[in-house]
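Figure caption, in words: inputs first, then the predicted bound structure.
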Amino acid sequence: YGDPNQKIDYVFKVVLIGDSAVGKSQILARFARNEFSLDSKATIGVEFQTRTLLIQHKSVKAQIWDTAGQERYRAVTSAYYRGAVGAMLVYDITKRQTFDHIPRWLEELRGHADKNIVIILIGNKSDLEDQRAVPTEDAKEFAQKEGLFFLETSALEATNVEDAFLTVLTEIFNIVN
Ligand code: GDP
Ligand code: MG
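Bound structure (guanosine-5'-diphosphate present):
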């Protein structure tokens, strides 16, 4: 997970947003440290975590920001979005409400962030298929309509987490190159 002396070609700031308890912090823990915790405490203090990876032979430092428990509508400040080139909009596939709030988060994001920001919609907790409340098709359709990438992930089983980050980071990389 990265040599600290490595030369860095790019730093990309990516923000995680979405309702509380959808799994944002665990998605980040999985990506940054390959860790997962079932009783994750509300995020405190830590603003972002980084992981450096290679994209087309260039080293890209992904600086991933987590909301630190400010998930109430409009509580996330503009400083959080400042300089972000990517965003992950996360809902929980077992909680319909978290998906119904996605248009609000998108509106917030579009109000604060750069207009060229790369956005991926993420339906997390795909391991809980028996409790699914949001059909994949609904989310796919919404993402298509809004021009977002879309994946379902499981931070618990490590399904598609790497893919989700790679999708966003590679798209950003292609835009700046
Ligand atoms: P956040 O508030 O969005 O940061 O959510 P957390 O990352 O703190 O996760 C909230 C709860 O959901 C915790 O109990 C996690 O262990 C659990 N959780 C997160 N991701 C997954 C997942 O992919 N599958 C399952 N089954 N639980 C998850
Ligand atoms: Mg959190």
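Residues 24-25, 43, 66 surround magnesium ion (ligand 2) (CB under 6 Å).
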